[in-house]
């Protein structure tokens, strides 16, 4: 089962990376077509020669980073058990927390949902999101479905003990993944209105991860991987939006569909059910 989860995760990362480079190549091709053509005439033969000027072929770094950053975060958690230096970061952080933190602060149980709430609340404040209410809800549901499936699958496959020793469901952090799904949607929806909205969302999501470590529920590698899964799941949610929309447009299918919130031990998710 553990190997199956790894294969699915690597395939997901590879799919998104290929999608990113495909988008860049498509963009470059379009840009090249827009370059004006210089027409010169050969004075000896009266033949017209078309010459296209040299074009720069450097890709869009932002397009690549959309997928590279979460891939690196997930990779960090996967290789941590194999690299002593990374394992030492986990254990040294735990020792520091044990010395200075002696009570649990439950703020992380609540603020993990704040970015997702902001996705809807900011529209009432007069800001204009990129997608309409239905589209945002479909992206939110799809992203949480993917995130929940990956997080719960990895928890039951890797069986990493929590820093407080309470159980073996530490890796990865579901709270952090939930927070980063909301934060990344917040960024994608309002980045054109105000880039600082996304920054605020990521700050709240990062705070969620920090408190998971301070509360001795997760290792540093757990929260970094959770953040990567949250961002990557959201990118998949946007990538699949056209297909999900087409599916929901069919009235006979949509009638029996229900989207429900479900609670797990380490966070919440979304359940999609269909009544025949």
From TrEMBL:
Pfam families: PAP2 (PF01569). It comes from the Bacteria. Residues 135-241 form the Phosphatidic acid phosphatase type 2/haloperoxidase domain. This is PAP2 superfamily protein.
């Amino acid at each position: 089962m553990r190997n199956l989860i790894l294969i699915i995760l690597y395939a997901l990362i590879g799919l998104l990376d290929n999608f990113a480079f495909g988008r860049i190549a498509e963009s470059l091709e379009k840009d090249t077509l827009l370059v004006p053509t210089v027409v010169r005439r050969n004075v000896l033969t009266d033949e017209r020669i078309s010459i296209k000027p040299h074009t720069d072929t450097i890709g869009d770094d932002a397009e690549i980073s959309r997928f590279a950053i979460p891939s690196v975060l997930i990779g960090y958690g996967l290789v941590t058990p194999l690299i002593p230096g990374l394992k030492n970061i986990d254990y040294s952080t735990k020792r520091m927390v044990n010395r200075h933190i002696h009570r649990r602060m439950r703020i992380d149980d609540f603020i993990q949902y704040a970015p997702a709430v902001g996705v809807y609340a900011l529209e009432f404040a007069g800001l204009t999101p990129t997608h309409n209410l239905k589209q945002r809800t479909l992206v939110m549901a799809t992203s949480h479905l993917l995130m929940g499936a990956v997080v719960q699958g990895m928890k039951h496959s890797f069986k990493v003990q929590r820093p407080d020793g309470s159980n073996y469901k530490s890796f990865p952090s579901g709270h952090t993944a939930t927070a980063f799904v909301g934060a990344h949607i917040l960024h994608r929806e309002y980045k054109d209105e105000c880039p600082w909205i996304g920054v605020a969302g990521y700050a709240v999501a990062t705070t969620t991860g920090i408190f998971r470590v301070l509360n001795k529920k997760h290792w540093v590698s757990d929260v970094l991987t959770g953040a990567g899964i949250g961002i990557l799941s959201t990118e998949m949610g946007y990538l699949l939006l056209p297909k999900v929309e087409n599916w929901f447009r069919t009235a006979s299918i949509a009638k029996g569909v229900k989207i429900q919130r479900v609670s797990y031990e380490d966070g919440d998710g979304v359940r999609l059910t269909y009544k025949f």
